[in-house]
Amino acid sequence: MNILLTGGAGYIGSHTFIALREAGFEPVILDNFANSHPVVLERLERITGRPVTLERGDVLDTPWVEAVLRRHQPAGVVHFAGDKAVGESVANPLKYFHNNIGGAVSLLRAMAAVFADGSAPALPTLVFSSSATVYGDPASVPITEDFPRSHTNPYGHSKLVIEDMLSALRVASPAWRIGVLRYFNPAGAHPSGLIGEDPADIPNNLMPYVTQVAVGQRPHVNVFGGDYPTPDGTGVRDYIHVQDLAAGHVAALQALLTKGESFTVNLGTGRGVSVLEAVRAVEKASGRLVPYVIAPRRAGDVAQCYADPSLAKRLLGWEAKHTLEQMCADAWRWQSGNPNGYRG
Ligand SMILES: NC(=O)c1ccc[n+]([C@@H]2O[C@H](COP(=O)([O-])OP(=O)(O)OC[C@H]3O[C@@H](n4cnc5c(N)ncnc54)[C@H](O)[C@@H]3O)[C@@H](O)[C@H]2O)c1
């Protein structure tokens, strides 16, 4: 059973590729390598022992996406492709509205066209990469899926608009089966150490930043805010191992394909970890000292953000299994084995 992964060469997509293959699906990657490197494909072939099918191109190119769907007849599509840097989205909002919202519209139109003319027999089935960012500044924790949604930057806004588009589509066309996954903070890497997060620039996420400091590429970690109302004063987040996240996509596709019910679920661990706890965990995994500096709070950051993941367990039979220690050990194996990521 083919599954199309838009953005499948990226961080979460590449890990999901392996999990899907292990579960008996045949994933096909669609990517333009705007934020990834073709070397990942060789790594995926090494890990899974089989060739990888790639469709190289832009999800914004609707006629081409239609042709890809006709060629591979996927039973489902996972839509990872998009831009994800919050700071960049503030500086360049149109890029985010164009690529994220425009990319989703393009993909959905291609899927709708192929379904409507009968050239792909499968019902339109989609898993969408949303984010805990749609909860804005949550009034309390843990966060359940019925919390009010808001946005604090154009990236978050783009996710919210896409979620709303998907709801409208479900109302208009009940044949669509849609799973919206709200990821909390993905971290870690495949245990082989062959694939992992490879930020092109200064990492936006804490974990790769901390491991880059541990490996000696950056002098220290800037801890934004040491006076939050949290146990050690630093921000608390829900770090989820990318392997658990990958398993969540398999569970989501299986649920959509067998039960046919759409859903929106959090993918998190339910455990909040402070910045300093994360720094100490990387120190332990790497055996290196990670210097840090307490810096002023960043606009738009919230004190605490962690999931109530019970709905995903109830609906998908999925829950996160990896510990913070495993996450840091895997992130360190990847970072220390590939200090320059896929660029060698
Ligand atoms: N990593 C996180 O912290 C996080 C958290 C919540 C949600 N998400 C969402 O999950 C998805 C995947 O995130 P990731 O961390 O793997 O990001 P990533 O940047 O590593 O992967 C995205 C992939 O999409 C590709 N891409 C971008 N625009 C494209 C286009 N127009 N056409 C074809 N390919 C395109 C990129 O080349 C890249 O390979 C994104 O939608 C992101 O917003 C990520």
How would you explain this protein's 3D organization?
The chain is an alpha/beta fold and 344 residues long. It has a domain at 2-186 and 239-268 and 308-320: 3-Layer(aba) Sandwich (Rossmann fold), CATH 3.40.50.720. Helix content is 41%, strand content 17%. It has 11 helices and 14 strands. The chain has helices spanning 11-22, 39-48, 62-72, 86-91, 93-116, 154-172, 206-214, 242-259, 275-286, 310-316, 324-337; strands spanning 2-6, 26-31, 53-56, 76-79, 125-131, 177-183, 185-187, 221-224, 236-237, 239-241, 263-267, 273-274, 292-295, 304-305. A 7-stranded parallel sheet has the order 3-2-1-4-5-6-11, sandwiched between helices. A 3-stranded mixed sheet has the order 12-9-14. Strand 2, helix 2 and strand 3 (53-56) form a beta-alpha-beta unit. Helix 1 packs parallel to helix 2 and helix 9 (275-286) crosses helix 11. The longest helix is centred in the N-terminal third of the chain and has 24 residues, at 93-116. The chain is globular. The two termini are 34 Å apart. The model has no long low-confidence stretch (mean pLDDT 96). Nicotinamide-adenine-dinucleotide binds next to helix 1, helix 5 and strand 5. The site of nicotinamide-adenine-dinucleotide has 27 residues, from helix 1, helix 5 and strand 5.
